[in-house]
Write a structure and sequence with these properties.
226 residues, mainly beta, 4-stranded mixed β-sheet, globular, disordered N terminus
Length: 226
């Protein structure tokens, strides 16, 4: 799986829906002796395929007129500027152009390997991600955050999943990870841990996460929220 660069506005959208991730909680530090540290979350290595991506500046098309959005849609009003190639481990967080409050929508484009978070249509953060290997794919759909756990430990693998945002009941979440080229997950969306911390603080239960595979929007287009 190759690192891919950021698309037209580094955003994606998708239709469909699924539920929340595997539960579990990180060990509590108490009066008893600490248990041995959990092993790192398994990272699956896959063979990268040749990439034809160029820099973000060349893959951001000229904005096109957007259709009148449905009442439940959020309109894209602002996107962040990325300097240079948007590669594994890179992320950006900048709320300076965005309102302090407003509805939140997270978009994930598996094809571009990019996650973006929007507040009232203003992109406030974006990061290159890892996603599920072929034998454990990341689901597509319009999902909701059903649980937040900053110190989550996988009940399937016994490994830390910091700043976990649960999306489905069968183990899929967004969480902090070591985002490296050639890496993949067991279906989760892995983001750099420092970015995961900011994402965790910005969202609430019920916020929408839209996962697509190559579906892009232009400035002024609508991000459906249901």
């Amino acid at each position: 799986m190759a690192a891919k660069l950021r698309t037209a506005l580094g955003v994606t959208l998708l239709l469909g829906a699924i539920g929340a991730t595997a539960g579990g909680a990180l060990m509590l530090i108490g009066a008893h002796p600490a248990a041995p540290a959990a092993p790192p979350l398994p990272v699956i290595r896959v063979t990268p395929t040749p990439s034809t991506r160029s820099t973000p500046a060349t893959i951001r098309p000229t904005p096109t007129p957007a259709a009148t959005p449905a009442p439940e849609a959020m309109v894209v009003r602002h996107i962040l500027t990325i300097d240079g190639p948007f590669t594994h481990g890179r992320w950006l967080w900048d709320e300076s152009a965005a309102p302090k409050t407003g509805p939140i929508v997270i978009t994930v484009d598996l094809d571009a390997q990019v996650l973006s978070i929007f507040r009232d249509g203003y992109e406030i953060g974006t990061a290159v991600v890892l996603y599920g290997a072929d034998w454990k794919p990341t689901p597509l759909g319009a999902l909701k955050i059903t649980e937040k756990d900053a110190d989550h430990v996988s009940n399937l693998y016994g490994a830390p999943m910091p700043y976990m945002l649960r999306l489905t009941n069968d183990g899929i979440s967004i969480h902090g990870s070591d985002v490296q080229p050639g890496g993949a997950t067991h279906g989760c969306i892995g983001v750099p841990t420092a970015f995961a911390r900011k994402l965790f603080a910005a969202v609430k239960l019920g916020d929408r996460v839209i996962i697509t595979n190559g579906k892009r929007l232009a400035m002024g287009a609508a991000i459906a929220r249901r």
